[in-house]
Write a structure and sequence with these properties.
8 helices, 6 strands, about 260 residues, single chain
């Protein structure tokens, strides 16, 4: 009925406002992924490879962090308003990481502790988190685990993610769906794509514009071009007292030589 629908909308609105007050003090430091954004499956060129359980082809990036794989995809790219230092270049990367259960439990416990300070859900005591809000809390926990895990792993591999939207960071799994069944304290694996900067060898560090210059076809001068140049140089070096007809005869003779 209309009245039931209205109550349902109001209930969802109150839940959203309550969750907002809960998470205002909970935001990942230097988030790689947009804060509170839906971590939905990305439409990626390598998605089919991922779905088959395969790793995309590219250059493997050594990473000392355990349970992390990083692959550099393709050639250097240019990103507007982003400048590389000497010896650095921007690439697209694929990475797969497993977050250990102890870490997710730590994030979840910290989140719940902060949430209880601000929680004020309708029908529940102040500071009490209702069961129906738990999946959203788990989602925030997973978001923090992904952001922190990616930043730490990339830093240990000397790869610098670009800032904000320039990073184009996308999670290839449906984290929203995972949050409905995930139990904090258990490990989980995620796959991501992003843009980042890395120090590489001189050849790979060429910017896109530099590479375009190198790829430009070099046109070698023909024998006729060389001869014409020599004629002009020879004429320019002659005595300026010569007449126009005399210069023309000399030019003709030089071309035939």
């Amino acid at each position: 009925t209309p009245r039931t629908s209205h109550r349902s909308i109001m209930a969802r609105l109150l839940l959203a406002l309550s969750l907002l007050s809960v998470v205002q003090a909970w935001a990942p430091s230097s988030p790689l992924l947009p804060a509170r954004a839906d971590l939905r499956a990305a439409a990626s060129e390598v998605q089919e490879v991922i779905e088959r359980g395969e790793k995309p082809s590219g250059v493997a990036v050594p990473c000392p962090t355990e349970d992390v794989e990083i692959v550099r995809l393709g050639e250097p790219i240019s990103v507007e308003d982003v400048t590389c230092e000497d010896g650095e270049a921007i690439f697209e990367y694929w990475m797969r990481m497993t977050v250990q259960g102890e870490q997710t439990q730590e994030y979840f416990s910290k989140l719940m502790k902060e949430a209880k300070k601000n929680a004020n859900f309708p029908g529940f005591k102040k500071g009490q988190i209702p069961p129906y809000a738990r999946p959203q809390m788990v989602y925030f926990c997973l978001e923090e685990a992904i952001n922190t895990g990616m930043l730490n792993a990339l830093d240990s591999a000397s790869v610098k993610p670009l800032e904000g939207e320039n990073a184009k960071a996308e999670i290839l799994e449906d984290i929203k769906a995972l949050s409905k069944t995930y139990k904090p304290g258990s490990p989980f694996t995620f796959t991501a794509e992003l843009r980042a900067m890395q120090a590489v060898d001189g050849a790979a560090a060429l910017s896109v514009s530099d590479a375009a210059v190198m790829d430009t076809e070099v046109v070698e001068p023909t024998e006729e071009d060389v001869a014409s140049t020599k004629v002009r140089e020879a004429i320019a070096s002659l005595d300026s007292s010569l007449t126009k007809d005399e210069l023309a005869e000399i030019a003709k003779a030089l071309k035939q030589a």
